[in-house]
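input
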Amino acid sequence: MLIATDAAGHVVKKPTKPAIGRMLANLRRGDAHLILERVEEGRVEKGAEGSPYVQVLLRDDNTYQLEFRDGAAAEHYQTRTISEEKVQTAVLGWAAGKPDWKDGFMWNNIGSQFGTDDALHQG
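output
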């Protein structure tokens, strides 16, 4: 199941494409973020270990920091862009399970910043 969570703690289970678009459009500079997680049915606790996710942070310098994790903490990647449109396309592509959602970005593996206890959603 897909779960979207914003910085205010607003949670949307099974968010629609328009709902995700609105949450992205409502990001404000600073520590505002959006997290989309894939959680197994029946395992709905936020941040379940191994849950793949993508997150977006709108930084103070007006750039978008985009991160994703493919299960294990060691598989955590980050990129930055100034394009809201590219971020929206990538996030919606990830949510839809499109294999090419991360194309068009240069990703850095930042998995070494996270311990094996999986410090969740650190950016």
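quick obs: The longest strand covers residues 33-38.
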